Known about the structure:
It is found in: Cell membrane. The chain has one domain (2-122). The model has no long low-confidence stretch (mean pLDDT 78). It is built from four helices and no strands. By secondary structure, it is mainly α. It starts with a helix and ends with a helix.
Amino acid sequence: MYFTLELAVRSVSEVLEHGLSYKEMGLFVIVGYCMTLLFIICNEAYHATRKVGHEFQVRLLNVNLGSIDRNTQREVEMFLVAIAKNPPIMNLDGFANINRELFTANISFMSTYLIVLMQFKLTLLRQGARKMLKTIVMAVFNSTTTLADDDEEEEPDVGQ
């Protein structure tokens, strides 16, 4: 999914250079789909961890601990402390936590990547414009000096 998003973000530079085509429109549709899918996954993971963590604690706290024996009360209290100190977290095999922060981090990553690509593209465009301007200036000065040299050569012929 990240690879697809990265390719689609790269297509923005092609849109700036060549205009919008069906390929870029398709990539933007894929970006919308992948971002929607990522949002749904991250949001559901957030709600699942909240439900398992917070709501499960509330349910355990609502249990009448007076009606059970002392060892069971101590185990429930230790379990509540364990849940409070180690809240449930969904992750991708330890690589990234799946929560709402993953979605915002992905948007931040794509924005930064897009800005860097656009800066490279602008640098290339500026360099191309400078080279073209330099070529035009050199062509104009070469043609004027050639015309001036031709005029100087023609004057002595006229005077004789």
